[in-house]
Design goal:
The chain is α+β, with helices and mostly antiparallel strands. The protein contains 7 helices and 10 strands.
């Protein structure tokens, strides 16, 4: 059983350690099973690391919830997307019934290879003191590699931010607030640039979305470039561990 960050701090304090070293990031997957539709499989990935405390369990430092949708079933994709929290439904326009739209198929050449499934990453989270080490990118790239042998990746890089965090007036309608709109556009642009390092490219028919097919080498090349993340080692103080936000649970 994995430890929480706060539990690691308590354990380190008992051992007389003021600094804890985290290393050897790995990804663990579990099926969530919220969907009753045959086409949808919802999953949860945990990013765990080892700590330099004798006999201590691994610690969870990040997470990614994602959905794998099988194409060509009797379930309309829009109905599948509507089941989940987050912004999955924003991708509905990239599907035509139970298949990808013709524009997406042509851009990513999905008719050339067997394309039976689409993987949709939703919210990627890495706890604050471990950000800046490409762990989130590596988590997404590793998830694509392990959970989508062949198929298509689609993603809408929408920031999980409150109105106040975007610098706008909390009493103003965010949809009519130019400050909020400009800040949101900037945040989406930065996220798009960020996740393009996973091998994704803008969808021509919907530039706010990102996508890529396993028919191309981009996903494998991006994962290879992020391979050094496996050797990441980070030293954190007890205060940093206790102040860090815990990753979301699968049902949150």
């Amino acid at each position: 059983m994995a430890l929480s960050l706060a539990a690691v701090a308590d354990l380190a304090e008992e051992e007389g350690q003021g600094i804890v070293e985290l290393f050897a990031p790995r990804v663990r997957f579990r099926s969530v099973g919220h969907s009753d539709l045959d086409a949808c499989l919802d999953w949860f990935a945990e990013l765990v690391m080892t700590v330099d405390i004798d006999d201590a369990d691994d610690v969870v430092v990040g997470s990614l919830d994602f959905t794998v949708i099988r194409l060509g079933t009797g379930d309309p994709i829009a109905l599948c997307l509507d089941q989940f929290d987050g912004d999955h439904e924003m991708l509905a326009g990239l599907f035509d019934g139970n298949q990808l739209t013709q524009q997406v198929e042509e851009q990513y050449e999905t008719l050339i290879v067997v394309t039976e499934a689409v993987l949709i990453p939703n919210i990627a989270f890495v706890t604050e003191p471990l950000r800046g080490h490409d762990l989130g990118l590596w988590l997404v790239a590793e998830t694509i590699h392990r959970m989508l042998p062949t198929g298509m990746v689609l993603m809408w890089p929408y920031p999980v931010l409150s109105t106040g965090s975007l610098g706008s007036d909390p009493d103003t309608d965010p949809d009519a607030d130019p400050v909020h709109i400009a800040a949101l556009d900037s945040a989406i642009g930065r996220l798009s640039d960020h996740f393009e390092r996973c091998g994704l490219t803008p969808v021509e028919s919907a530039p706010w979305a990102l996508g890529m097919s396993t028919a191309f080498e981009a996903l494998a090349v991006a994962r290879s470039r992020l391979g050094a993340v496996r050797r990441t080692t980070v030293s954190l103080s007890l205060d940093q561990l206790r102040a860090a936000s815990p990753p979301p649970a699968p049902d949150e």
